[in-house]
Design a protein that fits this description.
The protein is of the alpha+beta class and 179 residues long. The protein is built from seven helices and six strands. Helices cover 30% and strands 16% of the residues. Helix 2 links the parallel strand 1 and strand 2 (59-63).
Length: 179
């Protein structure tokens, strides 16, 4: 039954990849005349825009107010009590479903710095933890698995305050294209 549901869900979600735009194949991939463009912000989006536009022949200039690139995934050094320390914004998970980001990270040769983890564990309370290892990775079925692990219960589905949460379970690719 689970295999059948997985196939149906994957088909409904268009193999988990939904094109938000369709490039016009008749247009050139590179400029015939160089144009200049300024990119503001050296986070992941700014770095990606700079790389992609540069590949297409734009003369790009990337402006970043910090002295490091990466935005929220970047890190920087600082001095404290005569010691140089490195700081960052905290843990970052690049889940496998972020295939565009992962492919871009391979392209700029930063993917090699990702460290696979066995489980994504959330710590709360005094000694309590909640992991996600072993959950079905099929949308919908993973929600049922979270219920089985005690992350939430059946009341979550009938509680009026859970309605925003339940909206996560709906999917309509046409609504993605409206914006």
């Amino acid at each position: 039954m689970r295999a059948y549901l997985r196939r149906k869900i994957k088909a409904k979600l268009q193999n988990y990849r939904v094109a938000l735009n369709k490039p016009d194949e008749n247009l050139p991939t590179r400029l015939s005349k160089i144009k200049s463009v300024a990119i503001l912000g050296g986070g992941i989006a700014g770095i990606s825009a700079t790389a992609n536009l540069s590949e297409r022949g734009f003369n790009t200039v990337l402006f970043e107010k910090s002295d490091y690139l990466g935005g929220k995934v970047g890190s920087w050094t600082f001095e404290s009590n005569g010691e140089t320390l490195r700081a960052e914004h905290g843990f970052h998970a690049f889940f496998r479903q972020y295939y565009n980001l992962r492919e871009f990270m391979k392209k700029i040769d930063s993917f090699k710095h990702l460290i696979p983890i066995d489980d994504y564990v959330i710590m709360f309370g005094e000694q309590e933890t909640q992991g996600f290892k072993g959950l079905d990775n099929t949308p919908g079925l993973n929600v049922l698995g979270m219920r089985k692990q005690g992350i939430f219960n059946w009341f979550t589905f009938v509680n009026p305050f859970s309605i925003p949460f339940l909206n996560l379970l709906s999917f309509n690719p046409k609504t993605l294209l409206k914006n």
